Amino acid sequence: MVCMRPLRKKSELSVQSALALLLLLICAAAIVFFYSAPPVIGDSVLYSLVYAVIPRFFICVFLLVLILEVYPDLLAWKRISWKNLLWCVLPLLVTIVNFPFSALILGTARMTRAELIWLFIIKCLLIGISEELLFRGIIFSSLSDYFKKKGRSCFLPVLFSSVIFGLFHFINLFDGAGILAVLQQVGYSFLIGAMLAIVLLKTKNIWLCIFLHALFDFGGFFVSDLGTGNPQDLTFWILTIVVGILCTVQMIITLIKIIKKRP
Asked: Which terminus of the chain has a lower count of CB atoms within 10 Å, N or C?
């Protein structure tokens, strides 16, 4: 279980902590300013990417600074054994099959804005960083610490952090998304959140979670952000369901093993 304690005493206010607080305030102010006065861009595709990238950059900085103050060990690169890398094959396949290979090959979907792919990649990376630092970093680690003190198993942090991650996506209703699409997103976000929480438990490496999250979003948003058409054809759903079921079984077995090994 990822349970880490702050390295600094709460009574101490070092220069580093003061600078961190200042940077947090600057990032918070920048986020508020951007959302209150977004840039005016005539190109709707470029605008949507810029609107996604700029605030998320400051959100990432904000969360990085916060985690360095609260859970500094979380950001350290943890060596991943070959055994764990092989274990990660199914989670990796989950992210890969989210890419609309079949639709692009058959022509039912196509990319129309290839010149903006660099900005799209930045967007996916920032989403992966920000959401993993928040949900698997701060929320999951805080829940793990809390339930460990209560003598509970790591199942509850996985469950609650995944529920929170899923419910968080109701925010997309404010961007004009339909209720059915949002409910679908909430459902698969819960499953992806649970998978990534177990990946963190298994590997102790949040950077791996960030990579998987960013890759999943790259496939999921590729057509909607950079192209036109329907990316989710029959082949997409067959692969998603088959790989999803296999990964779910693997995650359940892994979580049971972890629970048996740890209180």
From this structure: C
